[in-house]
Specification:
The protein is of the alpha/beta class and about 220 residues long. Helix content is about 45%, strand content about 20%. A hairpin with a 4-residue loop joins strand 3 and strand 4 (about 90). This is Peroxiredoxin. InterPro entries: AhpC/TSA, Thioredoxin-like_sf, Thioredoxin_CS, Thioredoxin_domain, Thioredoxin_ResA/DsbE_sf. One of its GO terms (molecular function) is antioxidant activity.
Length: about 220
């Protein structure tokens, strides 16, 4: 009896194996397609255009991102550069050693940058004689030209140095992906903090006090 059923059992086994093998290949194919889609999704995020930060200057919503870098074991000096202002005057970052520097990256078309500038101008007027400097790096290579920058400066009455990154090299050097982005540099030329987003006057005051307190502790 078993011998008579053996061919049917064998046929059933082979049919089952063929179905299993087909199912596994289909799953493998689906997995390959899914992984390919995931890779494409990740790759599509590379090289995205510069974006303005999504935050406001409302004191109740300080949504900027602060990155600290003032550990004695993790000190990074700000990369040096030389850029020219609207009058062609060269400004070298390393020449500002001895001052606390707010290095701000911005563009005229950026709404958070526009919101930030009046606060920055007010802060500058109050602190320019207290060992604090502001350098506003316009990302000219991604902006609407020198005339737009000049119009912006006049419209907002900016008196702190505004320099032009016409080649985009300084923006790349500082890895600027979102604007405004500001680096707070101590008097020795070290990066103390990085702030991504629009700052108000109080945030700037707090940062400067923080760096002054830290320097005082180090000297003590």
């Amino acid at each position: 009896m078993i011998k008579k059923l053996l061919p049917f059992i064998l046929i059933g086994f082979l049919a089952g194996y063929a179905f299993y093998d087909s199912l596994m290949k289909e799953k493998a194919s689906d997995s390959t397609i899914e992984n390919a889609n995931q890779t494409e999704d990740v790759a599509s995020g590379i090289g995205q255009p510069l974006e303005p930060a999504k935050n406001t200057n409302d004191n109740s919503k300080k949504t900027g991102i602060i990155e600290s870098s003032h550990s004695s074991l993790d000190v990074e000096f700000a990369p040096d550069f030389t850029l020219s202002d609207m009058n062609g005057t060269h400004i070298n970052l390393s020449d500002l050693r001895g001052k606390i520097v707010i290095l701000n990256f911005w563009a005229t078309w950026c709404p958070p940058c526009r919101a930030e500038m009046p606060h920055m101008q007010n802060f500058y007027e109050k602190n320019k004689d207290n060992g604090v400097e502001i350098i506003a790096v316009n990302l000219t290579a991604l902006d609407e030209g020198k005339q737009a920058v000049e119009k912006f400066i006049n419209e907002y009455g900016l008196t702190f140095p505004v320099v032009l990154d016409e080649s985009g090299s300084v923006g790349k050097l500082y890895e600027i992906l979102t604007i405004p982005t500001s680096y707070i540099i101590d008097a020795k030329g070290r990066i103390f903090q990085k702030f991504v987003g629009s700052m108000d006057e109080q945030i700037m005051e707090d940062m400067i006090k923080s760096i002054q307190m830290y320097d005082g502790e180090q000297e003590g």
